[in-house]
Design goal:
This protein is an alpha/beta fold. 34% of the residues lie in helices and 21% in strands. It folds into 2 domains: 156 residues, Leucine Aminopeptidase, subunit E, domain 1 (3-Layer(aba) Sandwich); 322 residues, Zn peptidases (Aminopeptidase). The protein contains 14 helices and 19 strands. The strands form 4 sheets. An 8-stranded mixed sheet has the order 7-8-10-9-13-17-14-15, sandwiched between helices. It has a 6-stranded mixed sheet with strand order 1-6-5-2-4-3. A 3-stranded mixed sheet has the order 11-12-16. The two termini are 36 Å apart.
Length: 495
């Protein structure tokens, strides 16, 4: 998809379909700007008949019989005094869905003057690109459809948006890659195949790659991670990708939970746990690998980024982890497994220990970790846990720029008592109340206190059951843009 800013008036634009943002309470004055291209003396009446007032998410499509432009999709932006860049993002998504599959060229006219040009271009460009992605890989006869090939942001400053626009496709390709990993069925995306996908990234983008096999993980004492993998006939794969600029002064580690399928083990998922959807339990790893793709293409300066995935399946056989087993992580801590369905934190424990040995400036992990987080924050907001105020601020800022919901949650030390074991150092689950907090506190036990660390629970945000804003039904690729924004910011402000 080619995206560009064009310094033109609407009446100078040469395309056939236009998306226009309309401010609430200013319809008449805005309609006047269209009278040169719309030969419709009843235009005001058509707005009235549709009860279109410019409220957020309202839409009105008008077919034109004369002139170059054949269709205009008006989308409400709400009141001018409350207008945010996120409203532009949402409006662009709504408009895009109205023409998806029909038009190759699209023009967008919004009230740009209220915004930084680069921020507006990024938000709208990403919205169009991500709203239009359809994953048809597993259809036997995918329907042929006309995809949008060209998008012009009409009246937006060309010079001020060059860099932002150049970054849109690399970032969106990272999101697309993450979505495809999550959407892939578990008989396709196995730990082996995930390692192969990492190999492709390393080859295409000249990244360093290390893949530890089962024996090498045993040599490192990864008893928690390997205990989860025991119930599967498929060997685990520990993936370590690295991007490094020549001027790297900041070292960051990104870790993604990599359960390509989670049965729950002997604490088998039943009923509302929706076992049939547990292919997306590797959503964290997909986001990390999607970020790796984008970062490798963008090539930020002054930074070294490590991408780590402890990939495996949580299955049941005669060798599988039992409820009540005690396992030992690679930092020597023993864990009583009181629930085999709390497996992600076991794999992350050894991944975090491994990450700390790299002596980074910060570690961030993403994981579809707890249903408790979904109960607390729903399906539009991820939970953020960290003791580091600076890191929290950086990630919150990066998420806000991406339009990805995130909320800092408490690290309540008194809740540690819930994960104490009478026969081991820890147990892998605590009481039901505060379950997402005790999960974060469990992970904290495997991070050096001197290293800033954050945990992001994406259990609710990595998948959507319906089309929502920039996300078609299915995998969202949540976290890719937040991570990329954060890394870009760090690269511009090296330690």
């Amino acid at each position: 998809m080619q995206i560009s800013a064009v310094a033109k008036e609407i009446n100078e634009w040469s395309g056939s379909v236009l998306i226009c943002g309309i401010l609430e309470g200013r319809i008449e004055s805005q309609i006047n700007s269209f009278k040169t291209i719309i030969k419709d003396t009843y235009l005001s009446q058509r707005f009235n008949d549709a009860k279109f007032e410019g409220q957020k998410s309202q839409k009105l499509s008008i077919e034109l019989n004369e002139g170059k432009i054949k269709k205009i999709i008006f989308v409400g932006l709400g009141k001018a005094e409350n207008l945010r860049v996120e409203d532009l993002r949402k409006a662009a998504s709504i408009g895009t869905r109205q023409v998806l599959g029909y038009e190759k060229k699209l023009g967008i006219s919004f009230p740009w003057d209220a915004f930084d040009p680069s921020s507006a271009a990024s938000a709208v460009g990403e919205a169009v690109r991500l709203s239009s992605i359809k994953d048809l890989r597993f259809k036997s006869e995918p329907k042929e459809s006309t995809s949008i090939e060209e998008v012009e942001l009409i009246g937006l400053n060309v010079k001020a948006t060059e860099l932002a626009i150049a970054e849109i496709n690399p970032i969106c390709e990272g999101v697309k890659f993450a979505r495809e990993l999550v959407s892939a069925p578990p008989n396709f995306l196995t730990p082996y195949q995930m390692a192969k996908e990492a190999e492709k990234l390393a080859s295409e983008y000249d990244l360093d790659l290390k893949i530890l096999n089962k024996q090498e993980c045993e040599d490192q004492g990864m008893g928690a991670y390997l205990a989860v993998a025991k119930g599967s006939d498929l060997d685990p794969k520990f993936i370590h990708l690295k991007y490094s600029s020549k001027t790297a002064k900041n070292k960051i580690v990104l870790i993604g939970k990599g359960l390509t399928f989670d049965s729950g083990g002997y604490n088998l998922k039943v009923g509302a746990s929706q076992i049939e959807k547990m292919k997306y339990d590797m959503g964290g790893s997909a986001s990390v690998l999607g970020a790796a793709r984008a970062i490798a293409e963008l090539k930020p300066n002054n930074i070294e980024v490590h991408f780590i995935v402890a990939s495996c399946e949580n299955m049941i056989n005669g060798s599988a982890l039992h409820p009540g087993d005690i396992v030992k992580a690679s930092n020597g801590k023993t864990i009583e497994v009181n629930n085999t369905d709390a497996e992600g934190r076991l794999t992350l424990a050894d991944a975090l220990v491994y990450a700390c040995k790299l002596e980074p400036n910060a570690i961030v992990d993403l994981a579809t970790l707890t249903g408790a987080c979904v109960i607390a924050l729903g399906d539009e907001i991820a939970g953020l846990w960290t003791d580091d105020d600076k890191l929290s601020s950086q990630l919150t800022k990066a998420a806000a720029k991406a339009g990805e919901g995130i909320w800092r949650m408490p690290m309540q030390d008194s809740y540690k008592s819930g994960i104490k074991s009478s026969i081991a150092d820890l147990q892998n689950t605590g009481p039901r109340p505060g379950g997402s907090i005790t999960a974060a506190l469990f992970l904290k036990e495997f991070v050096n206190s001197s290293i800033p660390w954050a945990h992001i629970d994406i259990a609710g945000t990595c998948w959507t059951e319906k089309d929502r804003d920039i996300n078609p039904k299915g995998a969202t690729g949540y976290g890719v843009r937040t991570l990329v924004n954060w890394i870009k910011d760090l690269s511009q402000k090296p330690n």
